[in-house]
Amino acid sequence: MKQYWLMKSEPDEFSIDALCKVGREPWSGVRNYQARNFMMTDMKVGDGILFYHSNCTVPGVTGLAEVASPAYPDPTQFLPRSDYFDAASKPDQPRWWLVDVGFKRKFKRTVSLDEMRAQADALGDFALLRRGNRLSVLPVTAAQYKHILTLE
DNA sequence: GCCAACGTTGGC
DNA sequence: GCCAACGTTGGC
User: Fold this and answer.
1) Which is higher by pLDDT, A102 or A91?
2) pLDDT of residue A149
3) CA spacing 20 to 30 A to A144: which of A3, A25, A66, A127?
4) Which range marks the domain in which residue A45 is found?
5) Cβ of A135 < 7 Å from strand C?
6) Count of beta carbons in the 10 Å neighbourhood of residue A109
């Protein structure tokens, strides 16, 4: 059963255009257990992803991607020079896991957070719209995914 | 740059 | 196990 997800990225760090260019990217750097668990245990190759730009002028969904690999340990946790280094994580029992994300397409226009808020009735309970939500990887229902596509 | 919300850490 | 302190996220 195909599932759907929303994954946030700061466009200054890694935008939908950057993903388009490289085609596929290991989603490294997630250091939140809830977000990790989604990648580690729930995501399956081929799952759909809404690519979301955060911390920018117009936050919102800017394109589509897909889960392109099974989960594997995030290599950056073992790199002492990395911002994402985690001294407490041991290679025989990695703490942080990720999946590769593959580019599908860029939206013609951004479906903004404002627009999605305005569609709260149609979208129903949506983790992205919950107050104070800071999760960078979150589940989306098939109905929500479909509805957001109609807003493009 | 501000700040509310929230997760994590560590002392007790 | 509680909770204050602290760090981070992310909208504005």
Assistant:
1) A102
2) 96
3) A25
4) 4-144
5) yes
6) 12
Q: Which residues pair with A53 in a beta bridge?
A: A9, A60
Tell me which residue of A59, A50, A51, A64 sits closest to A141, measured CA to CA.
A50
Per-residue confidence at A122, pLDDT binned at 50, 70, 90?
very high
The mean pLDDT value of chain A amounts to 95
Domain CATH for A32? 3.10.590.10
In a domain, A63, yes or no: yes
The pairing of beta strand A48-53 with beta strand A4-9: parallel
**Nucleic strand C contact set for A 47-106 (CB, < 7 Å):** 54-56, 59
- In sequence order, what are the residues at sequence separation of 6 or more whose Cβ sits closer than 8 angstroms to the Cβ of residue A103? A16, A19, A20, A22, A23, A24, A63, A65
